[in-house]
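Ligand: zinc ion. Inputs:
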Amino acid sequence: MYANIIIDISHEKVDRTFQYRIPKPLEGQIRAGVQVRVPFGAGNRLRTGYVVEVTDRTEWAPEQIKDVAGVVTGSVTAESQLIQLAWWMKEYYGSTMNQALKTVLPVKQSVRRREDRVLVCRLSREELREAAEEAGRKKYRARERLLRAFLDNPRIPYGVAVRQMHLAAGVIKPLLEKGVLALESQQIWRDPVLSMEKLGNGGDGAGGPETGAPLTLNPEQRAVAADFCRRYDAGDRQTCLLYGVTGSGKTEVYMELIRHVLAQGRQAIVLIPEIALTYQTVLRFYRNFGSRVAVVNSRLSAGERYDQFERARSGEAGVMIGPRSALFTPFSNLGLIILDEEHETAYKSELSPRYHARETAQKLAELTGAALVLGSATPSLEAYSRAMAGRYRLYRLTKRARPGSRMARVTVADLRKELREGNKSIFSRALQEAMEEQLGQGNQVMLFLNRRGYANFMSCRSCGQALKCPHCDVTLTLHKNGSLVCHYCGYQARPPKKCPSCGSPYIAGFGAGTQKIEELVRNMFPASRVLRMDLDTTSKKGGHEEILAAFADGEADILVGTQMIVKGHDFPRVTLVGVLAADLSLYSADFRCGERTFQLLTQAAGRAGRDEAAGQVIIQTYSPEHYSIVCAASQDYEAFYRQEMAYRQVLHYPPACGLLSVLVSSREEAVLNEAVNALYGWVAGLERAGRIELIGPAEAPVYKVNDIYRKNLYLKQEKYDILIKIKDELEARSGQASWFSHVMMQYDLA
Ligand code: ADP
Ligand code: ZN
Ligand code: ZN
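Predicted complex:
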């Protein structure tokens, strides 16, 4: 047997492995993650490395390959645990070890880029003014400009000085040498999320404690925290699901749990979906844990990211906050992982390994002896069904935490009825009236267009029915060529002239963009100030933060936006939330669309009335009787869960059943068909043997992307591990096929 070993873990290329022979007596001890001593280089000096893979294959001649000298025992490092995690990810999600390692190991930047540094002025204001004047007298124009800039900004990022201010290094260097300026590395809370200016002001004007003193937990919160801590100290590491309604104070409970593990000298990772990872959220953690907090987000450069991970490794930071990838923080003694908004789709990686942070966190917790806490107001079916089965411990928070704050009143406006009664506008009369009333009282309004997973579909404006596949019970997708297609089974049909359910001719594709709505709103309420938040308006750096801050500061009366506006933001002055067309997310061609709709509507409803003013939510829809909408309106998660779970059981969708989807793509349609037919041939045999249930092959919802054709196959089987085996077999077989090098295959297991 042979071991592939990484010698220098902080090397940019973690795929630089070296192969060694495993001597017989060591065979039992060597697996991925184990630290070993190996002879290295010409002098055969012993060095420490990490085993990343054990294999029986080698490309070297026997005399060229050296033996592993020994196993390092006694201490387990974070790297060792992360490599073990990578091994598990490779197996569980079916990726290469290389891809898995690149995902879990932080990559060091060989040269620290100057841009990661900030210039700080060491002079007092008086001295600075004098120095600037002196530079002016001597006609050192550039130096004068730089010094004057420091009168307004105590800190100027090096990159800004060079690029935006066009200052040459020759201008900066003498000032550094004289000690007038100093170069410091950026610190966490000076990252793009947290502008210095805002921190200086201290207040965020929108919820959260204004002082550093922790809030006193209410009895519900206290009971959860106390029970968790008691069991934690007794060594109980069962995964917990904290199911608490919007605004019930889950975040404050997390704080208490984190405090508990920090006091024991252990560390915590808090995962928050990027979109909810705002200045406001981070500041709450900062107020509780000060400089022990580290933050990563996708806007950081690789170098900045690495610095944050270094702070964790060195023990300077004890709490890491970030999106899914923060899971791979190299803490030495991880005690707790929190996964907030556990239901969010952003926890699933779209790159290989296509890991889900929930399962991966569970594995990491197992490897490190940490506890895992999942939190949500609308738990995923996966998590809640595990809680129901007793695999997760369930904690509940049933009431809003802020004194005086209540759940909003939710009503449903039936757009079919509006049409019947002559209102052709996209605003129901109820919503128009409520907007007039709230705006008249100086309150704020949010209008939400849930386009998540939005694909073109056809529905009837009279009866609300969307056109569905007769075989799969998912909505048919309207393709550009005008045909309706089921992307699960390939069924195709021409669009009917009349609604198949009620005969109405008002049948059409669905769609109005946020821009159009902004325009309509401006016309209807000319006296109100309107802000729009969607991909277009937030694409520039910090755009997302800016719009939210402006709305929180009362710079607008109405905020129109996509799902971006409903995630975890706290706007105390919003008294009305209007959901413009709940159906948009209800009829995407995905078996999870009912769940997504319920989640979005519940989260949207959670935005209204976060403060004492009573909140009101109006959900507009063509399908008021759909259970996702009925249950969201009554804010009844359990009822929703029962109906949705029944649907998954009947139609064999996860989590009631394992699902393997195979996406095959190719530039050449003929090759694609050849590959898909071959795959189909292999799995059809499995189906006949009763081992799986098969759907497809069918064109992907978007069949042709960038001149690449794509088709899907779905395999269902109750047992996930059987599906993994089938996947491995498919991979092995297709690897031998003549078409293999002309197609891309993407596997996804759920
Ligand atoms: P969730 O994470 O469940 O949505 P948060 O933790 O954000 O809820 O709390 C919602 C609001 O209630 C916040 O403004 C928070 O400051 C406030 N809050 C939470 N717990 C308490 C408490 N025990 N006493 C007073 N206010 C609280
Ligand atoms: Zn109809
Ligand atoms: Zn179908």
